[in-house]
Design goal:
It is built from five helices and eight strands; from the N terminus they run αααββααββββββ.
């Protein structure tokens, strides 16, 4: 124990100044006066307030998230609607394209089928003409006994060779200026037919109407050359084949055909066989 512990302190107690004490007394008096006035002003029998109103607490961060979520939901709905529209449009276009493709495929198939039938028909016709040409074994020569106007049978000899050649060309096309073997005009066909028996005829109709002997149209024989138009200025020729019929390369619509002379009477006829 320090040797100074038993010695009482010589510090003098601090004295408060008169002004400080007066200030504290004034403050205390004012507070008491305010309490007294408040008690006197209130009703003696007033009930105490027992209801407490609580204001909602607003969380700015939560509000921002709610707004963002709502905007995202609306944006997703718009996107879904646009996607549905695009899918519907694409489906309609695909269906339309498929229908058009099917129609085109059917058209192409029908065209291919028609072309195949045409090729088969032309091949059969060529084979028939080839067979007819191969069968032309009659010797060439000047034979005027070709037959009468009432006989449609193919004659023998030179006239028979000419008629057989002409009939083998039935079905060929008419093409102006063509000279065979599968397309002709009227005068080239007549010229080629008589060349089979070594008779060289002029190339054009006008000149063909002037060769040989004029026989008219009332005493025709098989193998006579028919012409339409004025003699020396004819515009068409053919060959009489008997039975009131003639064979010619008629026009682009008909091609090489056999026709009745009564339907298109000739102007005149000449005989070279």
């Amino acid at each position: 124990m320090p040797h100074t512990a038993h010695i009482p302190s010589h510090r003098k107690p601090r004295r408060r100044s008169a002004s400080a004490m007066a200030l504290r007394a004034g403050v205390a008096g004012g507070v008491l006066s305010t309490i007294a006035v408040a008690g006197a002003a209130g009703p003696a029998n007033a009930d105490p307030v027992t209801e407490t109103i609580e204001m909602p607490t607003i969380n700015p961060e939560g509000l921002s998230q709610t707004i963002a979520h709502s905007a995202q939901t609306q944006q997703q709905a718009v996107f879904d609607q646009q996607l549905d529209t695009l899918e519907e449009t694409a489906a309609k276009k695909a269906a339309k394209d498929a229908k058009a493709a099917k129609a085109e495929a059917v058209r192409e198939a029908e065209a291919a089928k028609a072309a195949e039938k045409k090729r088969e028909r032309e091949a059969a016709e060529r084979a028939s003409r080839t067979a007819d040409r191969t069968s032309l074994t009659a010797p060439a020569g000047n034979n005027s006994g070709g037959g009468s106007s009432s006989n449609s049978q193919t004659p023998s000899g030179s006239v028979g060779t000419v008629i057989a050649f002409l009939k083998a060309q039935v079905g060929d096309a008419y093409v102006m200026g063509a000279t065979g073997p599968n397309s002709w005009d009227c005068s080239s066909l007549v010229q080629a037919a008589f060349r089979q028996v070594n008779i060289d005829l002029p190339r054009v109709s006008q000149a063909q109407s002037t060769v040989g002997r004029e026989v008219g149209t009332s005493n025709l024989q098989v193998g006579d050359i028919l012409y339409w138009g004025a003699k020396g200025n004819a515009y068409h020729t053919g060959v009489y084949i008997g039975g009131g019929q003639y064979l010619d390369a008629a026009n682009p619509a008909k091609g090489v055909v056999i026709q009745d002379l009564s339907g298109y009477p000739a102007t005149g006829a000449v005989r070279v066989l």
